[in-house]
Design goal:
Order of helices and strands: EEHEEEHEEH
Largest sheet: 7 strands, mixed
Shape: elongated
Helix content: 10-25%
Radius of gyration: 18 Å
Distance between the termini: 57 Å
């Protein structure tokens, strides 16, 4: 049985390498630990910190969680993350990923997350990529298993539009490559 989220939000963490120095906040539900003092949880909150990169994410997850490979929910919102690190793609059981309120500015970065087979919920609003007119189509196209994006349900109509957008974009790209 998995317990409450391990909450390391609002801890002024700037480097994940230093996160192990922090004690998780106590929430409404008590955190349960195993005999090695690792938390019996599938959820980690690192929101509202000053994290700029995810370099030590795997080590940090392993430090806190009894079963790091079972991480299903990760909140990295309101940090200073500028790109989607490949390390996120190693979290094969991830289902929910919050990245809103960061500084991600290259929309194609989202494509990397297509490697996550169970990802069904993502937040990316409040990043520079949100200003791109293809934002929602691109994300839905890159992540076909999405059910929720930016706290809104992904509709059947949006899936159709994302598929049309994807095909027309690929056609344009391949015709450009043929010309060069």
């Amino acid at each position: 049985m998995y317990g409450a989220p391990v909450d390391l939000s609002f801890k002024y963490i700037s480097s994940l390498a230093d996160a192990h120095l922090e004690e998780p906040s106590i929430g409404l539900r008590p955190l349960k630990r195993n005999s090695q003092k690792k938390y019996l949880s599938r959820s980690l909150r690192f929101n509202n910190n000053n994290i700029t990169d995810l370099h030590d994410l795997q080590r940090t997850i392993s430090h806190f969680l009894a079963e790091p490979s079972q991480l299903a929910w990760l909140d990295l919102s309101f940090n200073n993350i500028t790109n989607i690190d490949q390390v996120l793609c190693e979290l094969r059981e991830l289902r929910v990923l919050y990245l809103h309120g960061n500084n991600i500015f290259i929309l194609s970065e989202v494509d990397k997350l297509g490697a996550l087979p169970h990802l069904h919920t993502i937040t990316l609003h409040g990043n520079v990529i949100e200003t791109n007119k293809a934002y929602r189509n691109r994300v839905i196209s890159a992540l076909p298993g999405l059910k929720m994006m930016d706290f809104s349900a992904v509709t059947r109509q949006e899936r159709v539009m994302a598929k049309i957008w994807h095909h027309s974009n690929n056609r344009r790209r391949s015709s450009r490559e043929t010309l060069h």
